Amino acid sequence: MPSFDRTDARILLALCDTPRATGVQIATLLGLARNTVQSRLSRWDADNVLQPFDRRVAPRDLGFPLRAFATAVVDQHLLEDVIADLAEIPEVIEVAGISGPADLHIEVAASDSDDLYRVAGRILAVPGVERTNVSIAMRQAIPYRTKPLLEQIAGTKGGV
Predict the structure, then answer these.
(1) pLDDT tens across 70-109, in order?
(2) Which of 20, 52, 128, 148 is most buried (CB neighbours < 10 A)?
(3) CA 46, 91, 75: angle at the middle one, nearest 5?
(4) What is the structure's pLDDT at 2?
(5) Which residues of the chain have pLDDT under 70?
(6) pLDDT value at position 52?
(7) How many CA atoms lie within 13 A of 124 on its CB side?
(8) Distance CA 135, CA 72 (A)
(9) Alpha-carbon distances of 138 from 55, 110, 115, 135, rounded to whole Å
(10) What pLDDT shows up at residue 99?
(11) The CA-based dihedral angle spanning residues 12, 14, 16, 19, taken in that order and rounded to the nearest 10 degrees
């Protein structure tokens, strides 16, 4: 598991502000050696540390404005098979194993309520899924973010 130091966090914050910046541009902006920046970017690429680009595309912009969350209770003997089957459903955006009364937390994108009903039925039809509970997201109050964590590591707040 990679750990990030202050320099790593500063580089990542610069990328948050200017995602298409080159290593040279980031080095100049931060007053770092070009090789320092480039070696860290290369290491993150090799270690698959950075999230894929598709994470930046909102499902609503792809024609799926309805966002919902399903919890699923799963036969524990079939858990890995269930996860593999859920990965085959395009509308399933993310799945997390959770503790508590349910086993999986499933984020879903749908075009409308009828589409959500169809997707929820498809999830329930996966062998090993015993029951589900679906909730519709009314709005996204705080979007996915790591910038505040990077600012904490970098020792900055609101700037590079």
Answers:
(1) 999 999 999 999 999 999 999 999 999 999 999 999 999 9
(2) 128
(3) 90
(4) 60
(5) 1-2, 158-160
(6) 81
(7) 11
(8) 12
(9) 21, 13, 16, 9
(10) 97
(11) -100
Pair of tokens at residue 32:
């770092």
Which residue in 93, 156, 106, 155 sits closest to 134, CA to CA? 106
58 CA to centre of own chain: 11
Residue 130 backbone class (left: φ over 0; alpha: ψ -120 to 50; beta: rest): alpha
Q: What is the pLDDT of residue 148?
A: 94
What does the pLDDT read at residue 126?
Answer: 98
Two tokens, residue 123: 């999830």
